[in-house]
């Protein structure tokens, strides 16, 4: 999901330009729409009946492309998570016109003014979405969580489910959720802490209108329900990754730790934001002290995400353990097949492995091709994200040309200085030399152009 909310439609003019610049598709070809409409009427015939289980979904209130539904039960001291994932492969055949279009797109693009889906709405927000009170085909992964929070994949099956409720992060009550929902999240979070995981989930940024054509960027901290819901996907994806690795197959999500140069830049960013980061404290240790309800801490969390080495997909290779450093685990993406192309294939492989069956050849072949496709989709998503943030910053600063700001240099190279403003969550560049990381300088805003989504500064005297 995007990290920027535009509830006032302030970005609408600049968003049109960004959509054109990055070729965001405005619609699906007629042939794809027609094929999806036909597929939407495909009745599930390879699925057992699990409509007796009290599945629920938990998402943003406006979401209609619902990938996951869940219920939790006790098994002695263990917890069993029954995680129903939309069975997209039931509606999309290898090589058909809907599949080919999905391979072109790679992933759903979420922008402040709307999304460009991976699949047509008749599937993504209709027949394949785990909407409430209707029968839906799904793949149920059952993950066992012991008292220490260790996750193990117990089984997987194709099933028909009926979600009993569409719950929203901002309105869900404890009584709406499975009895052990809190305990499940607690165990997963405790296991993460023991592993030394360093997941950083920065708050969303929101454009807020001040009046008189002026705007500000605010942070909306993640709700506790969002954090707990994330534990469901994390546990399932870790368990599925372990099962695939043991079966010597799969497609994995890998991510390195920020390198030393990035960590040094983050230390300067912390200084610019007025945060105290002791020299002997690691980045992982410092992250555990952050409070996302504090705007300075939230800005730093966003900087950490931008500083990470970048995540990639890799297929199984003999003798190599794929590693996701922020998760401190081997990790796979399987929980969002309506929104990520790769997940559809990981789900199919995990379903086969869990039932002692060979992975379909088409899936194994896809694992070799998907890294390049998903890298292209991730790159475009990242470029759009950065340009949207640049647009919002330009909108916020427009009208303040000539104003001077305190800043800290976070990096210096032959192109000039990279700076972090001290009073605003804005990262920018200043041309010229004469500075080194850690220097505190004054800069003057010379232009802020929302249409070009650019801001420029120069050194102030």
Automatic annotation (TrEMBL):
Coiled coil: none annotated. InterPro entries: NA-bd_OB-fold, RNase_II/R, RNase_II_C_S1, RNR_Ribonuclease. One of its GO terms (cellular component) is cytosol. GO terms for molecular function: RNA binding; RNA nuclease activity. Residues 47-356 form the RNB domain. GO terms for biological process: mRNA catabolic process. This is RNB domain-containing ribonuclease. It comes from Bosea vaviloviae.
